[in-house]
Amino acid sequence: MSTTSGLPAIGTPGQPWGDEEKARWRERQRKQRSHADEVVAKVDALRDRFDVDAYGNLDAGEDGRYPLLAVRSRGGDASLPTALVTGGVHGYETSGVQGALQFLDREAAAFAGRVNLLVVPCVSPWAYERIQRWNAQALDPNRNFVAGSPCMESAALWDLVQPLRGRVLVHVDLHETTDSDESEFRPALAARDGKPFEPGTIPDGFYLVDDSENPQPAFQQAIIAAVARVTHIAPADPDGTIIGSPVVAPGVIEYPLVALGLCAGISGARYTTTTEVYPDSPRASPAQCNEAQVAAVVAALEFALAAG
After folding, report:
1. pLDDT tens per residue, range 247-279
2. Number of folded domains in the chain?
3. 3-state secondary structure of 118
4. Which residues is 51 bridged to in the sheet?
5. What's the domain range around 56?
């Protein structure tokens, strides 16, 4: 069942959505904030310090067009490795977007001459404005980072990153796990796919997702240690899991990133991580969530550059 603000459910329980149901879902999505004001304007303010380019233009039909913006170290140096930072793969995960922008503004200068930065602050601008997980076609970008992706946002980022494969040392993908995952987005996913909704749990605190096919435990723990100075780390559930996945170290679970089409698997980097901030905790403010994302990026880059 998928409902929004008490509206009737979309679709028939047990049957996947077709085009009509997806169109009805899209009609319910309303713009709640401005990508131009909250992202583009902040990127424009960085142009005196970084190279900025549009790696694509997202055509959202009647909702307009959105520039897909990438921010790079000025000039670049072919002798240096690349560090990739992505935010806003899911538009509702605010601190991923604002944390990436805050990192650029405050911390990126410390890495000049050490690494080529490539930062994509908001992969999914249509969803950012609507505080949504899916894109306008009811697709989850973070299951669609594959060759020939049907998801426009994922395909554009894929095309941007693929020429860099083999040169990316570290990739940090900035996300959140929110209460709305359980109250809205997981039920919507079950309805869309014609499956029963199975209730889960929301971890209280920050955690990371490592790559089960390329685990880097020391790298993950360096990030956890840095973030723990900013906000609390999620404990395991009584069964030893976080969101149903076994905890392999404090605050760390693993997924097969490439097999699942996840953003953190897009670059082939040696060091990859997906951050998960919990903004709905009474123990974490929006400012803390942004700071946690910044701390994660800085710790990830420092570790990767030291380890090589």
Report:
1. 999 999 999 999 999 999 999 999 999 999 999
2. 1
3. strand
4. 72
5. 32-177+211-230+257-307
